[in-house]
Amino acid sequence: MRNFFTCLFVCLLLVYSGASGQTFSITFPDSVGKEAVDGRLLLIFAPNDKSEPRFQVNDDVKTAQIFGRDVDGMRPGQQMLIDSRAFGYPVHDIASLPPGDYYVQAVLHKYETFRRKYGPPVKLPMDRGEGQNWRTAPGNLYSIPQKIRITAGSKQWYRLSLNRINPPVSEPKDTKYIKHIRIQSKLLTEFWGRPMYIGAHVLLPHGFDEHPEARYPLCVFHGHFPDDFGGFSETPPPANMDTTDYIDRFKLYGYKKRVAQEAYDFYKQWTSKSFPRMLIVEIQHANPFYDDSYAVNSENLGPYGDAITYELIPEIERRFRGIGQGWARFLYGGSTGGWESLAAQVFYPEEYNGCFAACPDPISFKAYTVVDIYKDKNAYFMDGPFRRMLRPGQRNYLGHVKCTVQDMNHRELALGTNSRSGDQWDIWQAVYSPMGQDGYPKPIWDKLTGDIDSSVAVYWREHYDLLHILRRDWAKLGPKLTGKIHIYCGDMDNYYLNNAVYLMEDFLKQTKAPHYYGEVDYGDRAEHCWNGDHTQPNYISRLRYNTLYLSKILKRIETSAPKGADLTSWRY
């Protein structure tokens, strides 16, 4: 009798699944969790077993296939279906998957309920120390990959068990030179309605313990989530280190050994007699939307800009003997870190004495990569009287297109609705948008169709379009920013970020009363992460942020430090 009802239940489920040729029933046992959970249920198909399917999802043409659906209150043993109602990337409908053999895996990316100071409750994936990576987030459930065969013209039923759980992330350990700091932010705790923390990895200057009288300038190296201070090693790479690894972007074998050698070379420079003694800080500000906050105040993320500038930076300076004044603080970084460096300098013009922004994320939304959000009607397509063309999303230095804007956004939509993919376009939206009535970021465009909401574009312009803000407020900001703005970008940036830099350069060159007296420079045929070094290939210069700008920082200190400033205690 039990078998009869089980068969009947399965048949009803297959009928309910509609037109789909394949239905996947996914459960988790109480051995990995006894409570009901919310989250995003993901199903991934890979054509090979070179790595687990969850690690093969990307923007490349060879990406694995992924489908996703939201789940609320999923209980141990409860079946959740992935069928034709689940949105997928790059194939949208599971019924359209080509017949063949696949390795399949399921993942449950867990959400928590947040009750912020403003707006209704929302369900979001709290960062758990991994930097907002659904593949490895501690506590996420996943299934063992299994091989299946999809047959054309037949209905098929598969069962997957989420019987594995991602382990916790180990905390980095202090060394002689690298220290770690983590504080509970009062500002962010008040906003999120629960304890919220920010932290940093701090590289101490050589001779820190031997010179207790010294006070140091501070450099904030902005960038994506760092699990520890990167690019610094007290030991050289082993002579027999494996060099068979290949990085397609640079067409190089053995790049890991090059990276390790650069890290050791930096240590040797850092401890040399002539090297300037400064604090270098990499900030940890992962949040429920992304691996960092973009270092500004946001209606959806909260006052991260104030928390970093007025809580974290002063605490770092207190603990590690920073000078603690705006003339002795500097910002640099690339990509996300490039935008953050320029944004922090613009929004806190007197708290920092210079920014060096490399390959910054779009600093004008007239060139939001390849989209003008103020004039274009659709982000995915360019329309003419007789044809419609997809907008490119990523290219190489020859201009060959890897994927489209639509591709990148549809991948995010499969990973999560309501800006919850933990990826690039969604975090821009989460930071820049007003809060919607449902408590989630108001979309700049329809994630499925690409149709742009002009009212959201106006909000973006007035609050986060850095070019617009500088042009609008130059009379007030200009005197506080002269000599502080330095921007660098490859003219073949993979994400078309140079387009916005051109617009910013046009404005900066014509500034008066005062002139900006900074620098904008471009790398010929250079791709993403070019940072102003014309002497080295990009695969080397991208590893030298922490030494590249120091000569310019020292020059800035010499020309701008106030009378009586400490210019000697840290120059031993």
TrEMBL record:
Keywords: Signal
Keyword Signal: yes
Gene3D superfamilies assigned to the protein according to its UniProt record, in alphabetical order: alpha/beta hydrolase
Signal sequence, renumbered to the chain: 1-21
InterPro entries per record: AB_hydrolase_fold (IPR029058), Mycobacterial_A85_antigen (IPR050583)
SUPFAM superfamilies the record matches: alpha/beta-Hydrolases
Protein's name in the database: Esterase
The organism of origin for this protein: Arsenicibacter rosenii
